[in-house]
Design brief:
This protein is mostly loops and 178 residues long. It has one domain (1-178): Pectate Lyase C-like, CATH 2.160.20.80. It is 10% helix and 5% strand. It has two helices and three strands, in the order H-H-E-E-E. The protein has helices spanning 4-10, 14-23; strands spanning 115-117, 135-137, 155-157. The longest helix is centred in the N-terminal third of the chain and has 10 residues, at 14-23.
């Protein structure tokens, strides 16, 4: 359960939140299980935060900092994650269907068991990311840097990888039958 004082701080706005984070660098924000559906959170600093089970459905997170955050079991369906950084973040079991993740940096992040149905990852950095058992369906990976990424047991159906840097051991991409 989210820390009520952290939710109250977030409710004061992004500027206030980011100033609070600067003034209290040792505090680990706990927004576990919070419903942040549709929130405008552009540029927010959620680095290192506990965001397990948090609902970010259709939330606006452009240019946010999610470095080292734990979003396991959360929902980011339809969220805008453009130009954010989420290096070494944990996304285990997260639904990222219909999300926009363009020009974002997810280096060294763990996407084990995630779902990327119809997600757009245009020019996104996924260096050394774990994509173990991850499902991609009609996903755009055009121009992505997936060097060193692990796609063990990943399911790729109708995925676009034009101009992407993919690992040598990339699994086969299947095309659905018309």
């Amino acid at each position: 359960m989210a820390n009520p004082s952290h939710i109250a701080q977030l409710d004061q706005g992004i500027l206030s939140w980011n100033q609070w984070r600067e003034a209290h660098p040792d505090v680990v924000p706990d927004l576990t299980g919070a419903d942040l559906t549709g929130r405008m959170l552009q540029g927010i600093n959620l680095s290192g935060a506990n965001l397990k089970g948090t609902l970010f459905t259709v939330a606006e997170l452009e240019k946010a900092n999610l470095d080292r955050a734990d979003l396991s079991g959360g929902n980011l369906t339809g969220a805008d994650l453009s130009q954010l950084t989420a290096r070494s973040a944990i996304f285990i079991g997260v639904d990222l269907s219909y999300a926009t993740l363009t020009f974002a940096d997810f280096s060294n992040s763990d996407f084990t068991g995630c779902r990327f149905s119809e997600a757009i990852l245009f020019n996104t950095v996924l260096k050394n990311a774990k994509m173990i058992g991850t499902h991609f369906r009609e996903t755009i990976l055009t121009g992505c840097d997936c060097s060193g990424a692990i796609f063990t047991d990943a399911h790729l159906i109708d995925v676009s990888i034009e101009g992407a840097i993919m690992p040598i051991d990339m699994p086969k991409i299947y095309r659905s039958e018309d």
